[in-house]
Automatic annotation (TrEMBL):
Pfam families: Glyco_hydro_1. PANTHER family: GALACTOLIPID GALACTOSYLTRANSFERASE SFR2, CHLOROPLASTIC, GLYCOSYL HYDROLASE. Keywords: Glycosidase, Hydrolase. Belongs to the glycosyl hydrolase 1 family. GO terms for molecular function: beta-glucosidase activity. InterPro entries: GH, Glyco_hydro_1. GO terms for biological process: carbohydrate metabolic process. This is Glycoside hydrolase family 1 protein. It comes from the Bacteria. It comes from Candidatus Microsaccharimonas sossegonensis.
Amino acid sequence: MTKKTNTQFPKHFLWGASTASHQVEGDNHNQWTVWELENAKSKAAQAEYHYSDYPSWDFIKNAANDPDNYVSGDLADHYHRYEEDFDFLTKMNMNAYRFSIEWSRVEPREGAWNIEAITHYKQYLAALRKRDIEPIVTLFHFTLPTWFTDMGGFEKRANVKYFVRYAEKIVHELGSDMRYIITINEPEVYAFESYYLQNWPPNQNSIWKYLRVIHNMAIGHKRAAKIIHSMNRKFKLSISKNSTYAYPGDNAWLSRLSANVVQYFQDDFIIKRFIKSCDFLGVNYYFTNRVYGYRIHNPDLKLSDLHWDMQPADIEFVIERLNRTYRLPIMITENGLADAKDQYREWWIKETVVGIQKSIASGAEVLGYLHWSLLDNFEWAYGKWPRFGLVAIDYKTGRRILRPSAVWYGKVIKKLRKL
Ligand code: BGC
């Protein structure tokens, strides 16, 4: 159990939660929705094979065996119900919220801007500002218009210009209410899952394509950043990097060497391609990896519903290392767990908040902590059964309920913000 520290959080620290368009909005039309419909049946048929050893299997099996679980469909209908969802931020005493713009809504056909969708996101931002909530706007969070993926997506260097044009359009239209911008969410996760592991559309398995996609996204980030910075220096940009903490499980030279190699390839190999055009570093922290010899073997002390090993306190070391290495302020843009029964969430948040506090005490500059997620959402290839929300969603009725851990967390934020 993590020990408390008395360090104060900075006055303007951002306390918030995150979502992404495709995971909560409902009724999207992009490369994911096409893929979901093509794959739902086979995913349901393979569920038992993949997940039956999960601690959560007994209560997830009905959902996991159902093809409907793998189709995003209407979800929480956040696209229309965002005002009531934002009220939960206020209830939890939060002052920040990260979300993504759905490119496929804004530019449904190449070069054709959808004014209604742009107006929607203007109203969305205004609804946050009205509540004194700082928006952190992501431009690309894994979903792309089908016209863009039909052209080859980020595999083709020539397509980068479309992303840059979209980024410029968004900032031109919505910039008055924006300050923090995440150009790309987890470029390395997107490229790895889609172009190497074959888990996500377009199900490719090529290390060269993986590297090319990262390279092209880095060019897109750099070009978008140059344009956005020239529009106004008030804009603060970053990517969101999924960062794991790797440590040697024993003192053997091989374990120490491997931990460094793992850390390098998971973090620095990617970050160095983007960092020059970043004003801060967005970090998504979910995992720690304990390395023995040349293998990763975690202690499995506590497992989330997704069978992920939970070591939330290690966020302290992730922040300290990245802040020291890149000398930029860190913003935790995602961090959380799948926990349908809400049995670990309070513990997880407590460990995390103390971990962040300790990193600040040791000199790190941290802008904020955005929990993943505000709402239960569509967890990509796993579908709807993993429950990451501070707010629980009943997908049948659309009913929203603040989970007990979130009620507790709201009180903690109130105290820490001295409200
Ligand atoms: C992604 C989210 C996802 C979360 C939990 C992050 O890697 O950005 O979209 O839901 O992890 O898996």
